[in-house]
Amino acid sequence: xxxxxxxxxxxxxxxxxxxxxxxxxxxxxxxxxxxxxxxxxxxxxxxxxxxxxxxxxxxxxxxxxxxxxxxxxxxxxxxxxxxxxxxxxxxxxxxxxxxxxxxxxxxxxxxxxxxxxxxxxxxxxxxxxxxxxxxxxxxxxxxxxxxxxxxxxxxxxxxxxxxxxxxxxxxxxxxxxxxxxxxxxxxxxxxxxxxxxxxxxxxxxxxxxxxxxxxxxxxxxxxxxxxxxxxxxxxxxxxxxxxxxxxxxxxxxxxxxxxxxxxxxxxxxxxxxxxxxxxxxxxxxxxxxxxxxxxxxxxxxxxxxxxxxxxxxxxxxxxxxxxxxxxxxxxxxxxxxxxxxxxxxxxxxxxxxxxxxxxxxxxxxxxxxxxxxxxxx
Length: 377
Fold this sequence. Notes:
The chain is of the alpha+beta class. It is 36% helix and 27% strand.
């Protein structure tokens, strides 16, 4: 018989054994450092109970789990706590028995506000069955920065999928002996550099963008000024940003502040993928008044110049803010996809109609656990 219940710290060894078995080459990035940061030492937990729910067999073996990343959220004029659904997994031999639903139900009931941003189709169906409603999609963007010879070879291999192995081997030998892949990538990079001379604005003398080791109290002032533009948004104050982007294990974020007339007008948070990730530039978060086009352009231009010096292959970003989306497109980003968040509140007086209106939410790549190391896609 399988029991679904909330976990305690006594269950940690069994949970860690489960994580090692299901995450294969990624388990060392899940435990123990990130697990402690996310579920034990999270400053936004309202009790000492673990936001982890497990399915356990008669021998005490964990066969499934679901967890919640608890964060502060402003909805209207209310400051609440929400639980992001994260790290849900059920062993294959136990699927189809309703255990996935029981796990998600326990997680949902354990959080006054339950949300998910990136999820499997199966998890989406379960959440809908529990009462979650879809929100406005979060637009995803990608911008190519440079080609590598292996990019050329990979593109050729994709074109030849399903063809005779002799042809594929002949093409591989052609690249190896002629260096065409290197010549093509060099030529394409010259074209990309010429494009960037036109697309990436020069530094704006009116907007100073500087990296900082940590965010200070000026960010609280920025939060108070900008957050009223959004009906619902994760609380991006000094304490939250330094916890999320300063103490998160395995990742090193570059935190930058923009100033106009000596006053903070926005920030941007970046990181570069490192092995086992691909060499990708990630705009994890950007926060600026939507109508402040000068600061927005200055921050994004700074990011692109930084990523070019780091020789990343491409840059990814995500946002719900129309003004941010327009600026990304203007600077050469392309729409690459979208993610549809799911929302369920059990709080009294929550205006679901307002929450589901287009433009109500502020989301970025750093929300949920969308940007955790290593990237899954």
